[in-house]
Amino acid sequence: MHLRKRLISKLKFGFHTIYRWKQILPDVIDEIARAGFEGFETFSWELNPFYGREKAFADLLSEKGIQLASIYTYGRYIRFSGSLSGIRSYYWWRWRSMPRIIKLAVVCGCKRIVVGGDQRLSRKTKDKDLVEMAKALNEIGKTCKDSGIEATYHFFYPGYIVKDKTLLERLCELTDPDLVHLTIDNGHLTWAGIDPLDIINVYKNRINVIHLKNLKDGEFLEFGEEGTVDFSEIIRLLKSIEYTDWVIIDNESVSTTIFESASKARKYIEKHLAKE
Question: What confidence tens digit (pLDDT) does each residue in 29-49 have?
Fold first, then answer.
């Protein structure tokens, strides 16, 4: 087990495996743990070797001394989105993919499944699309809740169904806040012209995961480089609303190894954010 001091904060900081180069997932988890992070988020497809071997993966996490904070999966919310492949992907996601993700999460003590993205439409989004999408999210949220975990929707830009603030707000109206929580990603919200601070203030009671990205001139930077995002302002707001859940460093740009990138992010957090 790796020994490391906890950050001076009630927030729990994790690191995403989004760029793991050609390393296998256990090695990436080891590097994130050695860099000092308490937890990590990964994609559902990165866990393919462990579906059916959930206990082995839970033992691996225990050995590394790190938590699986959340699992990210791309949602397929509409049955008939204009193509046969769309129909197939919906049923695969709903009845094959989600059950095994939930099972692994339960065994490993993971409490969050981040459901993001959406499928391509060949036309403009209609309200009936949002109604069907909300129905699917509510169903998934109920299945997750019955298993003791939470489903959390991640706005993704450029999206195909939920493309802007108006559509996001409508989706929030249509979904049950007790079943569908929210992941706030400052990068994708800012890219879409949405102020993440506004969304945090409005939906503070639904938020259970935060993704932090660094931005400059419309491009993602490696976390720790000088960008235009005021992370201190975001952290202060989170603390003011008494948010104490996961904050995931979601590096969209990694120029070094995962260990070096995670270590750089960790040092930035300790210096600039942990004592906010």
Answer: 999 999 999 999 999 999 999
